[in-house]
Specification:
This protein is of the alpha+beta class. The protein is built from 17 helices and 35 strands. The strands form nine sheets. Strands 1, 2, 3, 4, 5, 10, 14 and 15 form an eight-stranded antiparallel β-sheet that branches. Strands 6-7-8-9-16-13-12-11 form an eight-stranded antiparallel β-sheet, covered by helices on one side.
């Protein structure tokens, strides 16, 4: 239990904690986006502290609620933790009469900050509220019983030593010391089965909100759980995809998202920034969840920062890789075609031309020239990278489609996209496509070719076969073949297993009709990647021997599943512009159901014994079925 962590989150607020209740890392505590507010909260009952030594039970309900039980000498203590917008509710009840004391460690800091000498807080408190402020930010402690005893204490602590002792890599925590400010403690007397509630907030809230937060806690938890069930149930039972994994993927997509500010965070705890590349890779999954307004808002939010340099990898950042603008175009196309809403193109306006021109300007001899560390593999110097060609071949083709909708010239874009597709053949080696044009390297990046539909079907098979044969092991797909001279078993981008690449291989396998391999990849994600170091989540990377490393809760590691199910397992392509759904003719072994809400209609799809039926009008074609929505 102690070597595993969990994250509760909602709309950018998150609490990160070990499953044995410890706050044993500088990343543990309560955060709002990339700013920390609380290092920890701690309880004593008749002088005995709740700790890893007496935790009896931990249950992770979903990304917004968790439950602990502690066995003390005097009896059982129950702790419910619920995450709301801007605040965390911690409800504690006991099975015995007790005196309780609660201490909270406050450390208002930026994500990149460690210890800062001489840091001092201003403190205000009234009957049931404590406010500690540093600079322009405040942390609030609100309670419904007892009294606050002011007893200010400043200190230094190093919570990361705990994470290191538990076997977490220094990537999680290097053991650096942190500031510690304790304003005092709350004390109260509790009778058996009596509950006391504490709210740890990043904003001031009035008494009515406090009352509603506490009163509606269980209803709130139930409502969110029912939403997850509803979303997951719309996919029915998908062969090869464990229901629990799909449900966790849906939960994860919600947990990494900030619906209020139209952002998606790359991972918790330390990728708690709006990473645009990561967001754009998983954004189509939100279309599968019918979160179309959120997709629209995210795209428009990103469009605000488009410049002649492109789109940065992090919102507000200064690095401008060549993959983010291509992914933006692809997602914009997916949104327009899926929803039929073309007004977004007017909203994006000339920004679309800006990034299309960027792609055209970076062409050299029929290929997109990236150079340096300007790809997702940002620890490696690369040039003419294979996934950049795949993304731009697709993006320019789709740009032509968007321009056609706008009544603009599109033939040149079609030809440019085709030219890149043709020149991708220059990457072909003996049995694989090289990672870079001028460097022989058998990497996982060639999976972008079949996943984004930019090579011929027989070449899809070649790539997928090579990846299974030379890069896939029992823990997932290596970033580089172990037989490649560049392979490093301890490498980050040239050796580590990246689960999002394994998911892309699964999608590519399903695409070519190889359900055996697709299911194998899903089984790896489920049995060897999922719930290993973070409850109900998948790590950023794994070593080739299966050791989890990197960020313990990474968005793109688990967030591709809904899109893969729709596009590659079920073969569904929605085109609301035409008022139809195209479904690839399934194999005889595929039995599945899917419910969609499109153009105001509930669409039910049943796939069985090589046939597709629907509650809407359906036509059978040579290699597909067409459901008419008009």
């Amino acid at each position: 239990m102690g070597d595993k962590v969990h994250v509760l989150s909602k709309n950018g607020l998150f609490i990160f904690r070990f499953n044995d209740s410890e706050f044993g890392s500088k990343w543990c505590g309560i955060w709002k986006k990339n700013r920390k507010y609380f290092d920890y909260f701690a309880f004593k009952f008749d002088g005995e502290a709740l700790s890893a030594s007496n935790v009896k039970k931990f249950e992770y309900y979903n990304s917004q609620s968790a439950y602990f039980e502690f066995q003390l000498k005097s009896g059982l203590v129950r702790e419910k933790v619920t995450c709301f917008d801007n605040r965390v509710l911690v409800s504690v009840s006991v099975g015995f009469k007790s005196n309780i004391e609660m201490e909270a460690g406050i450390n208002i800091r930026d994500r990149t900050e460690d210890y800062s000498g001489g840091k001092r807080y201003s403190l205000e408190n009234n009957r049931n509220k404590v406010e500690a402020s540093f600079g322009q930010h405040s942390a609030y402690i609100i309670f419904d019983k007892g009294e606050f005893i002011k007893q200010e204490y400043y200190g230094i602590h190093a919570p990361g030593k705990y994470a290191i002792e538990k076997g977490f890599t220094k990537y999680l925590d290097d053991g650096a010391v942190q500031n510690k400010y304790v304003p005092g403690f709350v004390k109260a007397e509790l009778n058996p089965d009596e509950e006391i509630n504490f709210i740890f907030s990043t904003e001031d809230i009035d008494q009515e909100v406090v009352y509603k937060t506490i009163k509606n806690r269980d209803a709130y938890t139930k409502e969110y759980s029912e939403l997850l069930e509803l979303m997951s149930a719309s996919f029915g039972s998908i062969p090869g995809v464990p229901t629990a994994l799909l449900k966790a993927s849906v939960d994860a997509l919600y947990s990494y998202s900030n619906f209020l500010e139209s952002e998606i965070y790359a991972g918790f705890p330390f990728f708690n920034e709006f990473w645009i590349r990561d967001a754009l890779l998983i954004l189509p999954s939100f279309l599968s969840l019918n979160s179309t307004q959120f997709v629209r808002n995210v795209l428009l939010n990103i469009s605000k920062i488009i410049s002649p340099s492109g789109i940065p990898s992090i919102y507000g950042g200064s690095d401008y890789p060549l993959d983010t603008p291509a992914l933006f175009i692809n997602d914009l196309y997916e949104y327009v075609v899926n929803t039929g809403e073309i007004g977004i193109l007017t909203k994006v306006g000339d920004k679309l031309d800006t990034i299309i021109n960027l792609g055209k300007d970076r062409l050299l001899e029929g290929l997109e020239r990236d150079v340096g560390k300007a790809t997702w593999m940002d620890t490696l110097d690369r040039e003419f990278s294979i996934e950049i060609q795949a993304l731009w071949a697709k993006a320019l083709s789709r740009s032509a489609g968007l321009m056609k909708i706008l009544g603009k010239e599109s033939d040149s874009l079609i030809q440019t996209g085709l030219s890149i597709k043709e020149n991708i053949s220059r990457f072909k080696r003996d049995g694989y496509y090289s990672d870079q044009l001028k460097k022989d390297m058998n990497s996982a990046n060639q999976v972008f070719l079949p996943f984004f539909d930019v090579i011929e079907p027989e070449e899809d098979i070649l790539v997928v076969t090579n990846l299974e044969t030379h890069l896939l092991n029992e823990y997932g797909m290596l970033s580089v073949s172990s037989q490649d001279p560049t392979f490093n078993p301890k490498g980050y981008h040239n050796g580590a297993i990246w689960p999002f690449l394994t998911a892309m291989l699964a999608g590519s396998a399903y695409k070519i009709g190889d359900s055996r391999l697709g299911n194998k990849c899903m089984e790896i994600l489920w049995k060897n990647n999922f719930d290993v170091q973070c409850s109900q989540r998948i790590n950023e990377i794994f070593q080739p021997d299966g050791k989890p490393k990197g960020c313990p809760s990474q968005a793109w590691s688990i967030g591709l599943l809904p899109f893969i199910i729709d596009r590659y397992i079920l073969g569904i392509r929605v085109n609301s512009l035409k008022g139809e759904i195209e479904i690839r003719k399934p194999g005889d072994s595929l039995n599945a159901t899917r419910k969609l809400l499109l153009l105001g209609r509930q669409v039910k799809i049943e796939i069985s014994n090589g046939r597709v039926v629907s509650n809407q009008k359906i036509e059978e074609k040579t290699d597909s079925y067409i459901i008419k929505l008009n």
